[in-house]
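Researcher: Structure for this, please.
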Amino acid sequence: MAPPLLKLDAIRLTFGGTPLLDGASLMVGPGERLALVGRNGSGKSTLLKIAAGLVEPQEGEVFRQPTATIRYLPQSPDWQGFATVRAYVEAGLGPADDVNRVALVIDRLGLSGEEDPATLSGGEARRAALARVLAPEPDLLLLDEPTNHLDLATIEWLEEELQRSSSALVTISHDRRFLERVSRATVWLDRGVTRRLDKGFAHFEEWRDKVLEEEEREQYKLGRQIVREEHWLRYGVTARRKRNVRRLGELQALRERHRTHVRAEGVASMTASDAAESGKLVIEARGLGKAYDGHAVVKDFSTRILRGDRVGFVGPNGAGKTTLVNLLTGILQPDEGSHRLGVNLEIAMLDQKRALDPQETLAHFLTDGRGDSVVVNGQERHVVSYMKDFLFKPEQARTPIRDLSGGERARLVLARLLARPANLLVLDEPTNDLDMETLDLLQELVEGFPGTVLLVSHDRDFLDRTVTSTIAPAGEGRWVEYAGGYSDMMAQRKGEELERRKARGASETPKEKPAPAASKAAMKKLSYKQKFALETLPQKIEQLGAEIDGLEAKLSDPALYARDASAFERFTKELDEKRDTRARLEEEWLELEMLREEIEGV
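Model: Predicted structure, token format:
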């Protein structure tokens, strides 16, 4: 068996008080794809920094294969000393790396390479940082929140790139669908220790719940055992003194074990403050248009948003999602068209930038400096009590915001937003930096919110679970509204494309056509070969699907590459070929099916 690329064993690290890492372990073999998951503040990023050699643990073993190349993607890259993105990316290459890949990766990520790193937007900065770690094609990639600030098209490109790559991978992400598609094993960091599941993230949550349920049962059994032992000591038959002393010692050990057990952290408690009910019509827009420097961002857009609607906005970075939302809410005035808001609207907005004063304390931020109380749903609550709902500790009330993690800052902004009475929530990228448990709670809040929600997000899973309609760009400033979430939108767009292809197929002139009459006669009947293909292709496609599933199952074995690298490469090549073949056959069947429908309609 090949030696691991990386091995962390019994890692311990504390910054005072409860250890952040207390016996954590992580082992990565060639070609393995690991999702590293856990609550915000559990130490995931710190563990990844230890793996990258940026932080030294106080205790434990760290092994990195000397010949292996490792690249680490931080949440906040350091741009100092680099005049252009190309210079920044090239600095990440090793002596044996291909410099030509720099231009290729930069181009695929939608950059020119000549950008000044100091002027990059959040999405551009993340793409530049990704280019630096992807260009060398390292043996091991360590990615900390790679999808943050990326648009959907770039996220999907990154998924395909990582699936194609032979690099081993450890990634931290809040994007469920991304983790499901790129991971083959899951490492859960919880209360300072790690547990490993040799399955992808899609199986994680069910496994985690079982682990926690078993833990609760064990604690209950331990408590009952302590009660029995205490009863024996009080009322049991007197035995030899030595035996009694031994049993008393065992009881003390049981009590210590029960007392020192650290329970899993609770979940945040999110409730939006209710305002008076708005009118049935919340927003009406007719023919809205907005342009900057002659470029149309929004063109001839009309919609009616009613009370209870939950509308998602998707599209590439820079497409104009925030501009459209600002037009609909009246923050921006349109260049053309009309717009009106309904009556009794109370709007609460979560801005994407979330500008915070790093010197301000949590309590001061939540109360706006007005004492120690916050009013939620008309009831006055002490700020410390309200903070606990969002998993903050009482001692953090006087903590400066600069000391908070990214996830804690996201929770803090949500806490302040949800304390404001509102019947229209406007959420611009609310899922950034939130852990999955808090995402679940935010999802429930959005789903159960009695008012109206406008949601800008690149999180496909979150959109599918929450919104009732999705608005997406269609090019040249045009925006189209689809019923349902992101997956529903993609299915509808695919159907529209098929309809357009059918229309083009009906109107196009065949290349070989002796005369119009002959062509029409020929179109009235499928050839024997076409009929046979139409009948047999579904079985071939289904068989290929089964073969693809079998190959994917083989490749999901984390030890396969170490055990038989040639088999791994053979299976990977075969999988790509079968996927291409299936796509070709599906296209052929679709064209024949469209032709059959057209003939039957003659």
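Researcher: Any notable elements?
Model: The chain has four domains: 6-206, 207-260, 281-489, 509-600. Residues 237-243, 509-524 have pLDDT under 50 and may be disordered.
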